[in-house]
Specification:
Layout (H helix, E strand, L loop, with lengths): L2 H12 L4 E6 L5 E5 L9 H10 L3 E3 L2 E9 L4 E5 L3 H12 L3 E5 L16 E2 L3 H7 L6 E5 L4 H14 L3 E4 L3 H13 L4 H4 L15 H17 L3 H7 L1
Parallel strand pairs: 5-6, 5-8, 6-7, 8-9
Antiparallel strand pairs: 1-2, 1-4, 3-4
InterPro entries: MoCofactor_Util/Proc (IPR052698), XdhC_Rossmann_dom (IPR027051)
Protein name: Xanthine dehydrogenase accessory factor
Pfam families: XdhC_C
């Protein structure tokens, strides 16, 4: 691989962004396509599908081109060390997500309740200042406490997180939208919040709700950007 291309790729990976190295198998020449530029590329359809799947391979539309996909590992940041989180965290790790739990309430955020899971018993705004959200991060806010949930929800929307979900009824969410709008969050961004959180599978128990949330997160990950492009078309 060309050294300048490798340096650019390493910088992209360090910034938790996605790119694909397109290699012409007949010549060995390679070029780098950043995700944000993929829609304008001659191989746009193939590249966009690869960015969503995260899988490398021969391009179906050009058999002599190999696509090496570099996508950051997806993260799930859960705000709220509650019963749902206790079920959600280990399931998300099995599904391949890096997981972090944030909750300033030290009675809930204990290592005994979340063994082997990165746990931050701090206010979300302090944690996120050190560990910024990004487009490859999902945020699930489940404390039911506006003082804890609202800031990270706004931060996730601003960062372009691929999933932003919040626990609560439709009435609770309506009040949340009013608060976030007052904080200056644009109406278009507010429409991205998944609330009530999780796929509608009539979940009842914390474990069932966790399944619904994880399924919705995975769906959002695998369809990243696809809905927006469909609407634009």
């Amino acid at each position: 691989m060309d050294l300048s291309l490798l340096a650019e790729l390493n910088a992209i990976r360090a910034a938790r962004r996605a790119a694909i190295v397109v290699t012409d198998l007949s010549t060995g020449a390679g070029r780098l396509v950043r995700e944000e530029a993929a829609a304008a590329d001659p191989l746009a359809e193939e590249l966009l599908a690869r960015f969503r799947s995260g899988k490398s391979g021969l391009a179906e539309s050009a058999a002599q081109v190999f696509l090496t996909v570099h996508v950051p590992p997806p993260r799930l940041v859960v705000v709220g060390a509650v019963h749902i989180s206790q079920a959600l965290a280990p399931m998300a790790r099995i599904a391949g997500f890096d997981v972090a739990i944030i909750d300033p309430r030290t009675a809930f955020a204990t290592p005994e309740r979340f063994p082997d899971i990165p746990l931050f018993a701090e206010w979300p705004q302090d944690v996120l200042a050190r560990m910024p959200l990004d487009p490859f991060t999902a945020l699930a806010a489940v404390t039911h406490d506006p003082k804890i949930d609202d800031h990270p929800i706004a931060a996730a929307l601003s960062a372009g997180a691929f999933y932003v979900g919040a626990l609560g009824s439709r009435k609770t969410h309506a009040k949340r939208l009013e608060r976030l709008a007052a904080m200056g969050v644009p109406a278009e961004a507010l429409g991205r919040i998944r609330a009530p959180i999780g796929l509608p599978i009539a979940a009842q128990s914390p474990a069932e709700i966790a399944v619904a949330v994880l399924a919705e997160v995975i769906e959002a990950l695998r369809k990243r950007g696809a809905v927006a492009r469909e609407k634009a078309a």
